[in-house]
Amino acid sequence: MTTPSLKYAYFPGCVAQGACRELYQSTNAIANALNIELLELKKASCCGSGTFKEDSQFLEDTVNARNIALAEELNLPLLTHCSTCQGVIGHVDERLKRSQTEDTEYFNRVNGLLKQEGCSPYRGSTEVKHLLWVLVADYGLDAIREQVTRSLQGLNCAAFYGCYLLRGQQEPWENPYQPESMERMFETLGATAIYYRGRTQCCGWPLSSYATEESFKMAGGHLQEAIAAGADCLVTPCPLCHLNLDSRQPEVARVVNRPLGLPVLHLPQLLGLALGLDPEVLGLDRHVVSVAPVLAKLGIDG
């Protein structure tokens, strides 16, 4: 099989360039390994993570119309690796594409502000794609299987999809209640997919700034369910979920009064391990919850 040659306008988002720098690091590492060309949108702005629309839908639409227009300038699909960014930008893209024919006054208002600020207009000529979907649908699991140099056999992986990836858009990429793309990826890499109730639910991050205990109880419930189901690790395509499930796991454990210690990996980190990449290259040394048990199970020196 010929290895696909793919190119995308890369929207890294805020969290992957700050608190979850390892996601940015591992995304670039697996893209290089798979010959996926990423042209980073250096001028892109924060998608707003759903908060802009609380004040103004027009604000969210205009900010993200500009982000999409940056990808359109390159005639490339916009690639995200954050389920929240995907949900927000993808939904704006859906809404503006409809408004081109159904609400031209609003569409022209958005582009009018972009023109006023010296930005390119939104044309509705491209797609917004999450890294997970690119790997499964564009690159293809069969092609990924051919690139695996280190089977993840014996590793029990539990997916944590994140709300926006499944339900952020009106036309979801897969069944939002019974998704299988992550589990199919695990099996392609040789790992065992673990199913548990919380895999399609909210991690609690949106509540964390004003209802911290409730947020941590949600996260703790999911972690305990995954542990009880036999998971060696959680794997998420969302850095905000990662923050609540990994970075705050010690605090979560105190709130639920249970020992946890479940490693939480970003999707490209898991794939990178199967591609034979070094754990340090993938930023696996940056996690709050040690990934040493995962590496030990795979016979990898951390």
Automatic annotation (TrEMBL):
It comes from the Bacteria. Transmembrane segments: none annotated. Residues 8-89, 158-246 form the Cysteine-rich domain. Gene3D superfamilies: 1.20.1050.140, 3.40.50.11810. InterPro entries: Cys_rich_dom (IPR004017), HdrB/HdrD_reductase (IPR051278). The keyword Oxidoreductase applies. Keywords: Oxidoreductase. This is CoB--CoM heterodisulfide reductase iron-sulfur subunit B family protein. It comes from Roseofilum casamattae BLCC-M143. The lineage of its organism: Bacteria, Bacillati, Cyanobacteriota, Cyanophyceae, Desertifilales.
